[in-house]
From TrEMBL:
SUPFAM superfamilies: Helical backbone' metal receptor. It comes from the Bacteria. The keyword Phosphoprotein does not apply. This is Cobalamin-binding protein. It comes from Pseudomaricurvus hydrocarbonicus. Gene3D superfamilies: Nitrogenase molybdenum iron protein domain. The keyword NAD does not apply. Residues 49-297 form the Fe/B12 periplasmic-binding domain.
Amino acid sequence: MLLRFNPAAALLAVGLAGLLWAGAATADDAVEVIDDLGNLVRLERPAKRIVALAPHIVEVVYAVGSGDKLVGAVNYSDFPEAAQQIPRVGTYKAFSAEAILRLNPDLVLAWYSGNGPQRVAPIQNLGIPVYFSESRTLKDIGESMEKIGILSGSKTAVTARQKFDVTLQALTATYSNRQPVSVFYQVWSDPLQTLNGDHMISDVIRLCGGRNIFSNVQSLAPKVSVESILRIDPQVIVASGMGEARPEWLDDWRRWPSLQAVKNQQLKFIPPDIIQRNTPRVLTGVKAMCEHLQDAREHYY
């Protein structure tokens, strides 16, 4: 018998799960989760004063309905609009433990690869509970939503997570088994930089039926050469950049008209905020990536 993905049934399950979870704890109950590094994080009661040390973590806190618990954030925490009013404690690479301590948080949400454990250690030494987030796959985003929801006492986190999962499953069912196309994902131009197979971007490319041409490189964000791109000759080049505008340097590839991606007009752009931030908004970026790769298939196959 052929089983089909049923979004309506999945959303019904989401609602039921959310109702069950919402009644499972009160504001005075202890809560605990395992963070993305495998550490147990236990609070005597759900957090009421949270500092988030990465813009994408701020966004996740809002997505699970706990934005009102945020008392501190880092620069560029700009989504949703309310996040722009949160007091700043520095940048994600240079934050102040003293500034964080003055905010009297009962939980700090840290980004392992971005903040660095050595920078977070002084906060831990002050006795402040720290949850490390390190999403490497799309599925990880949903899990982080639920765990941050538990730590912050959210009544809507499970529902939000499962709605995310339903959309992710639908996109996977639609695109993942299509004819593969080779992709060069360009983070920046000078230096020429990409992302390897361990980065969430590769998970996005795989979901869309693509193949990251640098998936086997050891470094998470390797610098590469123009010569290597010309040699591998990807079918699609997808650029991010720094903002909403398509970067001018994407068109620099037109200097090599023999490249498949140039010859077939497959120089694509996705705004970085919807593809490189590990938040529920990434599903908008996933959809854009899948549509770009489908356009490429129609040229090549």
